[in-house]
Structures are given as C-alpha cells and as structure tokens.
Write a structure and sequence with these properties.
The complex is a heterodimer of chains A (289) and B (489). Chain A has 289 residues and is mainly alpha-helical. Chain A is built from 11 helices and 3 strands, in the order E-E-E-H-H-H-H-H-H-H-H-H-H-H. In chain B, strand 8 and strand 9 form a beta hairpin. Classes of the chains: A mainly alpha (289), B alpha+beta (489).
Chain lengths: 289, 489
C-alpha cells in the first residue's frame, strides 16, 4: 500500500511512497537521459517490428517490409559456399589422381570433401575412420578384397560389390555344407587347416586331410597358402583380420553356408568428383597402396 | 493516452509538491579552475599518461626480417602479441590473466594506502575529461563566464564558442580513437592506409566508435560515468579502512564555519566560501565527508589553500589524511600513518607472489611445444599381420624466427614404428619433421606395434620432441590402444 511521502530521518532523502512490510523506498532520482535511452530502445523496437519479421501470426510471422528471412540468408550462404566449392570440385573431376595429389590446396579440398561424404555415406557400415565392423571390411587395415590402389578403390566405390549392373564386382563362394559338397566332418577338418594359416593351431587336428580338401576345393580361389586373390575378390585367409570372425564356429559357418556382403554402386548417388574425393580419403586412412 | 490510478496520481502530486521527482535533470557542473601543487601534479600525470598513450605504438623494435617491428602490437590477424622482446601466442593467454590479476591487486593495494588515486589521476575517464575541461576553459572561459553565458540569451558569440569547443573536442576524440587502432596494426602503415582510404573497414569502424565514445564520455557524460556507470566506486570502499589516506575536510578545524568573520575570531577556519565546491569536477561538497562521487583528485585542496592564504589562516584545511588521524587530532593528539596493516600485507604478499611467478614463468617460457591427440575413430586398427596401429595428430609449436627441424621419438612401447602419412615418412623409429618459422606444424602419425603389454586394452606411450638445432626437448604422454579384451583387466 502506498504511504505518505515523507522525509527519511536518517538520510534526509524523501521516500517514494512505496512501502513493503515496513521497508520504505528512498527516492534516488534516476537521470532523465537514462530514461530517454529506455524510450529510445522502445522506439527502436517499433521500427524493428515494421522492418523485420516480428509478430507470430496465422500462417507464419509478419514478414516485415524489408522482406528479410533467415532461411533466405542460409540459402544464400549455402549457394555462395557451393559456388566456391564448385571451382575445386570441377578441378578434382577433371584432373588425374596424381595431379590432384601434387596440388596441396586441391588435395586438402578433396580430403575434406571426401571426409564429409564418407561420414554421410560410408561410415554407417565401414565405421568412422574406416575401422570396419563384423561383415564390413576395415578400410584402414590394408586387407583389401578387391585391391587398395586408387583406381581399384574408385572402381569399387563407383560400381559397388555384388550390386546390379554389369560393371559391379561379383564373387560368390559355394555353399559347401548346405549344398552337400562337403560332409560336416570334412568341413571341420578344412576349418582346422585354415585356422593354422593365421596361427591358431587346433589340437589333434588331421592336417593332412584338411590340406587335401583345401587343395581340391579352396585353393583355386583363396590360393594354396591362403593368400587370397584380388582379381576375383577371394579374401586372404592368412591374415589376422577377418570379415566374419576368426574362431572355429565362425569359420565352419562360413564354409557351410557363406554370407556375402553387398555394397551399393555409388555412381547413382554421388557425382564423379565426390567419388574421387572419397577414394582419396579412403586411400589415406592407412591402408592405401 | 495514459490513465493512472487515483492513488498514484495523489502520490505524484505529493512528490511534486515536495519538490521530488523520480527522474532528475542532470545538474550541470561548472568546475572552477584552480592553481596549486595538486593541480600541477595532476597536469604532470595527465601529460605523462597522454604521451604514453600516443607515443607507445610508434616505438620501433627490430625483430629480424619478415617480423613485426613495432614494440607493442596486438596482431589479431596473425594471433600474436608483441611486447618489446616478448612474443605471446594465443596459448600464452594465462600471462594476460596474470597481468590483469596483478593490475587488480595493485589497484587494491594503492587504494587501501592512498585512496582512489586511480580515479583522480590516471583513469582514462579522468584524464580525457580533464583535457576536455581545459579546452572548454580556453574557449568559453572559467566557471562564472560560462554560467553567465549559458543563462543569457543566445548570441553569435555564444554560438561560435560552443561550435568551436565541440569541434576541438571531436578533433581530440578522433585522434584518441585513431591512436587506439595503432596498437592493433603497424602504426605507420595503418596511418598511410587510413588517409589514402585503403585501410580495412574495421579500422574506420573502430576509429569512429572510439571517437564517438571519447566525445560522449569526456565531453557530455563526465562525472556521470563515475556516479552511474562505473562499478569501481561501488566496491572500492571495501579496500578502505580508517588508516587509508583520503581527501579529507578537517572537521575539527573547520567547524563551526565562520562566514564573513575575520581570522582570530571565535569559530572554525572554514569561511564557507564554497571554493571547494565550485572547484569540484564532480560537483560535490567535500565537507560532507567521504562520498561515492568523490574521485579523490584533491583539486578542492588547492582551492581551499588559496582562500586560507588570503584570509590569513593556516593552509591544508582540506588535506590528505586518515580517518584515524582525524579522530586523534580532534582529541588533540596525533597518530602515525600505518603502512603495514593486515590488508596491505595481504595485498602486498599476493602482489609479490604473482609478480615473481609471472617473471619466472615468462623467463622459463619454452620456445617449442608438443601436443599429441589420439585419433578418436578408429581407436586402433588391427593389421593382417596381427599388429596394432594407432593414429595420432602431432602438433609441434615452433616459436623461433627461423625454420627448425625436429626429431620425434617414442618410448614405453617396444618395437613401435612411426609413419607420417601427409609427408610420406617412415616406417622408422625416429621421425624427422621440419616446421616453418613462427608456426605450428601439424602431422598425422601412425604408430604400429605388437599387441603386447596392454592392460585392459591400453598402455602408455611417451612422445619425445627434440629441437635438432638447440637441443631443446618437450614430452607428451598419450595412450596406445587395442581391443578391450587384450591384457589383464
């Protein structure tokens, strides 16, 4: 409740007439120019209301007479960046890999474009940084199925693996168990033999029997020492990295009824310059040849 | 149209009847010029501060070819702060923090000893306001003349004086704003660029901005900056105690005031002439005691001494003194000024400790730096031969003015082989990496080793950097990782 305006005995100041639970407010006048600044900001807000989008309304906020829109601003920014990128991307498309690598600025642009495209398109299967996942090859490890040169990688990315299309890389391993080509005991013997390639000998294994089965059935694609064959995409078995696991059960399962991964052709989704950039990025992950 | 309640309207009438308003016009202060030792000291400090401000950026300092040759330069574009022989990088920002803390503690110490001398003599607001007041006096005359002219009708004489005063103010403000820019760019270059219209837009913007703030704050706002805007007057009282020297009206000597009486008659020395009030740049009466508005400039001392001398009374009725001494003097005794008090000892100790730490830290500042950042993904790669490979971003800081070749080795990981992918170096146990002068070299290094000795999938690896010219070394500890099920948990 407002009280009477009176003189405060201690300070000699007048009160404002405001009182809260016996506490009275002294009048310490604010400079007028300070108040005018407040009025000026109010006036400015009115001007702003007229010039810029301000009041929420049916079907969107009022537009303002300047027609400013943050979305337009973003579009303009994106277009400006795209125009800047286009210069580099055109060069990347036109030049050979060797020429791109000779130009540090162009190489940096390609690596950035490749990193972004890789994160958006490749990372869900191959893992960040090409670390790989079970069933999806580790690109950084250098254990290539189809070759690790820039040209090999570019072809794989462009046309995919086991994808529709004549240019796609194709390979298939017979279902040795499921189709009755080998008996379960024979599969177990050859699995023991294969496991010895990467240094996990199984106790009491009949290696002679395993070698015979391997030579007759597997060596034609995987090589007599399990070194693999990149021309037909046959994985290297003498390796500590495996697509579908390295324990006995996993090896037997793969011989019995092989799983075959599939990689889509990216030329339907990415332009040539982006594919080249991704190729350079993947090549630089540590496994490039 | 505004409507206010009956109660509010009644209150408004009451206030206006009592001569009280919620908003006040500024009471314009017309400080009278004074002569005397305090004023002379204040001029000396003013000239010193302004000279320092304008001359410092023009001091040249040879740092060798292709290096900035300005003694003090805050080079934002190249992220360097040059201070004579020292060059600071953004990584050295904590030296600035130390400098600011030293500034604050020094301010606390000085305030607890001699009051608000910062406010009265060296604060830029005080220095420039004083300068602007001097211009005002030269053009419009002293207090009485100015008041008379402001009260009278506008004449041609008034107009040309006011116009020329503001023009001179703007001129000074412009040179103030212009000089500020010199600290951020090479002074001779930016001066030429400025006048040929080729300087960066930021140069013109900040010159205009500081011109405007100088003109408004020193010309128009003046003491209002101290009383309404500045936070320092509000908490500086916490540094003061009864042993701090402040500008003091000697109440026991002055009261009761003896207006119009001759010396020797009964009553105090204060003749109530008001000279102290008219001389005050913030427009207060020092005889009311210590106040928030008082900036401790002491101009009232000169004004009062002049009157005391003319009326044949002892001078220094207003003086620098402590509250304790004043209480003692009123009782007929005297207390000595106490330099060492708990608060001054604390401030002094803190100041000395920070200063020593700073000097040691700056003197021992390394010329090289190493940081190693483990790749986040993948954490490790298992290679077909069973070995593990980890990737690291190695950053090497070379603060020297010439290119340096560095040697990078690792320890703690037997059989580790290093490969640098960008430069195509390795595999080797010792990488030799060149870093350009005054820059940071960034390298992507692969470390390959057998998966032995890992504890819960990780083990320490130490990177050692050696400057092959000076032999200076730097170390960084990182981790070498493998599958989580490798090694004991």
């Amino acid at each position: 409740m407002p009280t009477k305006i009176e003189k405060d005995a201690v300070t000699g100041h007048m009160t404002t007439g405001h009182e809260w639970d016996g506490v009275k407010e002294l009048n310490q006048p604010l400079p007028k120019w300070w108040v005018y600044i407040l009025y000026a900001t109010i006036a400015w807000s009115m001007v702003y209301f007229v010039l810029y989008p301000a009041i929420p309304w049916f079907g969107g906020a009022t537009k303002g007479i300047l027609g400013y829109s943050t979305r337009d601003a973003v579009d303009a920014d994106v277009a400006a960046i795209a125009a800047k990128r286009a210069v580099y991307m055109d060069k990347i498309k036109a030049l050979s890999f060797d020429d791109i690598r000779k130009d540090p600025q162009l190489m940096a642009a390609a690596m950035t474009a490749g990193r972004v495209a890789f994160a958006e398109n490749c990372q869900p299967c191959h893992g960040a940084g090409g670390g790989g996942n079970p069933g999806y090859p580790a690109l950084a490890a250098g254990n290539w199925l189809w070759g690790g040169s820039l040209e090999d990688i570019q072809k794989t990315v462009t046309h995919g693996i086991r994808a529709p299309g004549d240019d796609s890389r194709q390979s298939q391993m017979p279902r040795f168990g499921a189709d009755g080509i080998l008996k379960p005991a024979e599969i177990a013997q050859v699995a023991d033999y294969v496991m010895a390639f990467y240094g996990t000998p199984v106790a009491n294994a009949d290696m002679a029997a395993g070698e015979k089965i391997f030579t007759e059935n597997c060596a034609v694609c995987h090589g007599d020492k399990g070194q693999g064959d990149r021309t037909q995409g046959a994985p290297r078995l003498a390796s500590r990295t495996h697509l579908f696991g390295d324990d006995r059960a996993a090896v037997i399962a793969q011989i019995n009824s092989p799983r075959h991964g599939m990689m889509p052709p990216w030329n339907t989704r990415l332009d040539a310059a982006t594919i080249k950039s991704v190729t350079l990025y993947v090549h630089g992950l540590g496994g490039g040849e | 149209m505004s409507r206010i309640s009956k109660v509010d309207r009644e209150r408004q009438i009451q206030q206006e009847e009592a001569g009280q308003h919620l908003y006040a016009n500024r009471v314009k202060v017309y400080p009278k010029s004074v002569q005397g030792p305090v004023r002379r000291f204040k001029w000396a400090v003013l000239i010193f501060c302004l000279t320092l401000y304008y001359v410092m950026p023009w001091i040249r300092w040879d740092r060798g070819p292709n290096q900035a040759n300005q003694a003090i330069l805050l080079d934002m574009a190249h992220e360097r702060f040059y201070l004579f022989n020292l060059v600071f990088w953004p990584q050295d920002i904590y030296y600035l923090a130390g400098l600011l803390i030293m500034g604050a503690v020094t301010l606390f110490l000085v305030t607890s000893l001699v009051g608000r001398v910062w406010c009265g003599y060296t604060c830029p607001q005080t220095v420039w306001t004083d300068l602007f007041m001097w211009v005002e006096r030269r053009i419009e005359g002293d207090r009485n003349e100015r008041m008379k002219r402001d009260a009278a009708d506008v004449t041609l004489d008034t107009v040309w004086r006011k116009v020329s005063k503001h023009l001179v103010w703007l001129f000074i403000a412009f040179w103030t704003g212009g000089a500020w820019i010199m600290y951020y760019a090479d002074a001779p270059t930016v001066t030429v660029q400025f006048w040929t219209g080729t300087a960066a837009i930021e140069v013109y913007f900040f010159t205009a901005l500081f011109t405007a703030t100088t003109y408004l704050l020193a010309g128009w706002a003046r003491e209002q900056v101290c009383t309404y805007m500045c936070p320092w007057p509000r908490f500086q009282a916490a540094m003061l105690d009864e042993h701090s020297l402040t500008v003091t009206y000697q109440n026991w000597r002055g009261e009761p005031r003896s207006r119009g009486k001759r010396s020797g008659s009964a009553g105090g020395d204060c003749v109530d002439c008001g000279a102290c009030v008219t001389a005050c740049p913030t427009g207060i009466d020092i005889r009311d005691g210590i106040q928030l508005e008082c900036i401790n400039c002491g101009l009232c001392i000169d004004a009062c001494n002049h009157v005391m001398a003319r009326t044949g009374r002892p001078s220094w009725l207003i003086t620098w003194d402590t509250l304790a001494d004043q209480t003692a003097k009123a009782a007929g005794t005297h207390t000595k000024f106490r330099f060492f008090r708990p608060r001054t000892i604390i401030y002094l100790t803190a100041l000395v400790m920070i200063a020593l730490t700073m000097v040691v830290a700056v003197a021992m500042r390394p010329g090289i730096g190493l940081s190693v950042l483990h790749d986040r993904a993948p954490l490790f790669v298992r290679l077909p031969d069973g070995n593990l490979r980890n990737g690291y971003v190695v950053k090497i800081v070379n603060k020297a003015a010439e290119p340096v070749t560095f040697e990078v080795k690792t320890s703690g990981l037997p059989g580790a082989e290093l490969t640098e992918t960008n430069e195509g170096l390795g595999p080797t146990t010792t990488l030799v990496l060149p870093v350009a002068a005054d820059s940071v070299g960034t390298f992507h290094v692969f470390v390959t080793a057998a998966p032995t000795g890992l504890v819960d999938g990780t083990r320490n690896i130490d990177f050692h950097l050696r400057d092959m010219t000076t032999g200076e070394e730097a170390n960084y500890r990182s981790a070498f990782m493998g599958p989580a099920n490798t090694g004991p948990r």
